[in-house]
Specification:
The chain is about 25% helix and about 25% strand. The protein has about 625 residues and is of the alpha+beta class. About 10% of the residues have low confidence.
């Protein structure tokens, strides 16, 4: 059985009518759905590379999500390269919002954007009625609303008066806390004060202040609440759990309480929020359960920005977003949990130094090998290949496109197809075989490099696909054994040694590192940029030394909070008892005692020192 799909066509030009560079359209399913006995996982993405004219590739198809029963949608995102005068080439992203693929055989991108209805919540079903039945139903609703409005009119008038009093500032003083209240002088009997930290109104009797027990929010409860919507069966709205299934963050449905770590209730959880929120001037956390407000983030004028009612409704301002919180938002939280679970995992991008060359055993002394052995939770892996420059490693990570020539200009229905002229040659490493998972002309599969050359083998058999020159682009998507993307990990970027002096000084290396950083997932963007090493021949003042220094200065300026100076760390590891080490130190190069004789590769001792430096930096950044 196969999924029911529709063909997607259309063009995405820039306002100048020119085609965007290296453009792609990504469709991501908002949550899990089914068709028959097939299960389509939520968060699954389909990426289509646009051709040189900005058109969708031929044969692009998407599952008709309206065939499912869970009111899913696709989030459509456009990505393309653009030149910026100050930053060089930058990757642009635009979120086009939610779209749905219905029952038509084909859609243009414009049709998806212009014609897509808002998805209905899960478990909501349609029914057809006559005009007379519709008119009768509307009349009944209006009558019920009129009765409710009449019964609540007195309460509405009282609330309106309270709203007006609050807007006018009906109290005389607004101290921050009890101490500030006690410091007030010159008051007269009957004057009132709103103490902000408790949100209680106090009244002066003529001799002392007394807490009235009244909060202005007690009379500010909005009356336009709607139904609970589709709340989580767990009893929470927006729930995050640890691996023991304990609630560590969530909004409890029955009372709207914010639940903190180890099921701590609203008081403890609000303290957690306050530690972050109150660092922003004028922003505060308040709670007023008698008013129906379990907790709220407000500005200095008590206007609620984000709040939860005691009935479990989630509001942004006056808009009830409970349905979103249990639908699309809950899916985003679930996705975030997955990313957080993998956020202690590490990936190393680099060249022969990162790989471990120069040691007696690269698997043991390389960056990933040492980190994983010392801290198994990092599950450290490496994409580093000897001799590769920043552009090649960027392509291997999936941040840069690889242009190829496909034999016969066609991807067969199954089996490998020969690939030639990959640019950049991202899998080249001496005579060692290498492979990379990714997509070619929108077809998922694996690019393999052997002594015989490059081949591409599609992941799933299907119809043969014609590949013209505009579609001959391979995008790497490196994944681990579990199928999780490497771009979700903590990424160590150690590139640039193998770039030319010109590329080190003209900004090429810095821009390629920026491209790699941009490709890391936004919600897990934790990374370190290591400085470039100079060889023993590139002594202080030499042309090679100055080129490396220029590149490192630019990297430090571009990434000041993520820059680790491994070059200086190695130089500082010299042994003052060894005369040659002292000479090396004065030349500002790697000590002879820490390198293997090649002039650039550390020996076992050098790799051990690099590991110690990485661990020190990782602990400072909270990576481990």
């Amino acid at each position: 059985m196969t999924l029911t799909t529709s063909t997607i066509t259309g063009r995405v030009p820039l306002p100048s009518d020119s085609a965007p560079k290296y453009a792609e359209v990504v469709f991501t399913l908002t949550k899990l759905d089914t068709e028959g006995d097939q299960v389509i996982p939520g968060g699954a993405s389909s990426r289509f590379v646009l051709d040189a004219n900005g058109d969708m590739p031929a044969g692009a198809t998407l599952w008709r999500n309206t065939e499912g029963l869970r009111a899913t949608a696709y989030r459509m995102v456009f990505n393309w390269d653009e030149f910026d005068r100050t930053r060089g080439t930058v990757r642009r992203t635009h979120d086009a919002g939610l779209v749905q693929v219905g029952d038509l055989a084909s859609y243009t991108i414009a049709q998806l954007i212009n014609s897509t209805p808002v998805p209905v919540p899960e478990h909501v079903y349609w029914s057809t009625i006559t005009q007379a039945e519709y008119d009768a139903a509307i009349a009944a609703v209006l009558e019920a609303q009129g009765s409710a409005a009449s019964a609540a009119s007195n309460a509405d008038r009282a609330e309106l008066a309270a709203e007006q009093a609050i807007a006018a500032g009906a109290w005389d003083y607004t101290p921050n806390d009890a101490a500030a209240l006690a410091a007030i002088t010159g008051m007269t009997a009957g004057e009132t004060a709103l103490v902000r930290d408790t949100m209680h109104v106090w009244e002066y009797s003529g001799s002392s202040w007394g807490d009235t027990g009244i909060s202005p929010l007690d009379v500010k409860l909005d009356t336009n609440e709607v139904s609970d919507g589709e709340l989580s069966r767990s009893g929470y709205v927006g729930l995050i759990m640890d691996n023991l299934r304990y609630a560590i963050f969530g909004i409890r449905q029955r009372d709207g309480h914010l639940i903190g770590p180890w099921a701590r209730t609203v008081d403890a959880a609000i303290k957690d929020l306050e530690n972050v929120v109150t660092k922003v001037a004028g922003v505060q956390i308040i709670k007023a359960p008698r008013s129906g407000v379990a907790w709220a983030v407000t500005d200095g004028n008590l206007r609620r920005a984000l709040w939860v009612s005691t009935t479990g409704h989630v509001y942004v301002g006056k808009t009830n977003v409970t349905d979103l919180a249990s639908g699309e938002f809950q899916g985003q939280i679930n996705d975030l949990i997955t990313r957080m679970d993998g956020n202690s995992k590490m990936l190393f991008i680099g060249d022969s130094v990162t790989f471990g060359s120069g040691s007696t055993n690269a698997g043991v002394y390389g960056a990933a090998g040492q980190m994983k052995a010392a801290f198994p939770v990092t599950d450290a892996v490496s994409l580093a290949l000897g001799g590769q420059n920043a552009q090649q490693q960027s392509a291997r990570f999936g941040a840069r496109p690889v242009y190829v020539t496909v034999a016969g200009n066609q991807i067969p229905a199954s089996g490998p197809v020969a690939i030639s002229a990959p640019t950049p040659t991202f899998l080249t490493y001496a005579s060692t075989d290498a492979a990379s998972y990714g997509s070619l002309a929108g077809i998922k599969g694996t690019m393999n490099k052997t002594s015989s050359g490059y081949t591409f083998t599609r992941e799933t058999a299907g119809s043969a696909v014609i590949v013209d020159m505009n579609d001959s682009i391979f995008w790497a998507e490196p994944v681990d054994a579990a199928g999780d993307l490497y771009r979700d990990r903590i990424v160590w970027i150690e590139v640039g040694i193998n770039n030319s002096e010109a590329e080190q000084t003209d900004g090429t290396v810095v821009e390629e590192v920026a491209r790699i950083v941009e490709h890391i997932r936004p919600y897990t963007k934790r990374f370190a940029v290591s400085s470039i090493l100079n060889s023993q021949s590139e002594v202080s003042g030499s042309a090679g030394y100055l080129a490396v220094k220029a590149a490192n200065d630019a990297l430090k300026k571009r990434f000041p909070n993520n820059y680790w100076d491994r070059r200086a760390w190695l130089v500082a590891g010299y042994n003052p008892a060894i005369p040659q080490d002292v000479i090396d130190y004065n030349n500002d190069v790697m000590p002879t005692s820490l390198q293997d004789g090649s002039g650039i590769h550390p020996n076992n001792a050098g790799h051990l020192r690099l590991h110690a430096g990485r661990v020190k930096y990782a602990k400072i950044k909270g990576f481990i």
